[in-house]
Amino acid sequence: MPALFTYNHTFLLESGRSLPRFHLTYTTLGTLNANGNNVVWVFHALTANSDPSEWWFGLVGSDKLFDPERYFIVCVNMPGSCYGSLGPLDDDPETGAPYYHDFPLFTTRDMIRAYQHLRTYLGIQKIYIGIGGSMGGQQLLEWAIEEPDLFEFIFPIATNAKHSPWGIAFNATQRFCIENDPTWKEKNSLAGLEGMKIARAMALISYRHYTTYLDHQTGVSEDTKSDPVDWQVFRAETYQRYQGEKLAKRFNAFSYYFLSKAMDYHDVSRSRKTAEEVLKSIKAKTLVIGIRSDILFPIEEQAFLAKHIPGAEFLIIDSALGHDGFLLEFDKIGQAINAFQSKTVPAITLNNLLV
């Protein structure tokens, strides 16, 4: 079950805005061992929650790569989300009413600075493995830069050092959909929901690939096959509509809006040196993983990370699933991580994790 951590002290955001307190919902699986050397910190992507055994079930769970019998697995729900951490539908301490449109922007750097307080609370001195894809990988990189001695291994997947103009354009256009929903300016939890459905349908095109749709969404919907051709509805069309409706059942437009902005602001070089110089500060053993068909975070972005993180290796996974391959190609990702660790870690160290 998710747990709640509350930080009852002033917390300063990159924007200069300060909060009197914040709270985070987090999930832990397994037990911290006596040596404290079995921590796996998983960072979730845009609309996921704090339980990776639900959305990364191929990697996290009994007899999986990250087995709670072996590891102490931690995952935090991002601030701004709607799965328990501080979000737009929570009350603003200054007004006593929900934040809604006035929710403060948490950058990926703000997020990991919030997690640092949770880490202290949990008594974690060292993180053996940090892993995350997409926006989760962005957070991982920020933390590995902020605290270079914290991680033994990091596995950034389908992510980047700075969100690209291409990625920002996708996110901004999705926010336009929400902003043009007539209900968006209303102060209630359902505001902008129809716009978010369209935004999600648009996002899915960037998450997948031409081949994904060709392989799985060719033809017409089963419900319309008997109709005259003029009235047939294509499977690709019903699939887009379904994806929007599906997200609307579990998410809200405010969280979607602010989390997409947080992704846009991701830039490891902001208020630091160049991205090349900043990445050189990472000390963790690093395997960067890219998905060859990813059009949202193209492999050139992961190649850049691997080039500038000292000693990093780069692996490209062949997949027709596009950006979503980081969630679905868990067998290939697991094999890659095992192979990388077997080259880097003496067997005795791995055995010590079982202590």
TrEMBL record:
Functional pathway: Amino-acid biosynthesis; L-methionine biosynthesis via de novo pathway; O-acetyl-L-homoserine from L-homoserine: step 1/1
Reaction(s) this enzyme catalyzes, per UniProt: L-homoserine + acetyl-CoA = O-acetyl-L-homoserine + CoA
GO CC annotations, alphabetized: cytoplasm
Residues reported to bind substrate: 200, 324
Pfam families associated with the record: Abhydrolase_1
GO terms for MF: homoserine O-acetyltransferase activity
SUPFAM superfamilies named among the record's database cross-references: alpha/beta-Hydrolases (SSF53474)
Similarity field: Belongs to the AB hydrolase superfamily. MetX family.
Annotated protein name in UniProt: Homoserine O-acetyltransferase
Lineage of the organism: Bacteria, Pseudomonadati, Bacteroidota, Chitinophagia, Chitinophagales
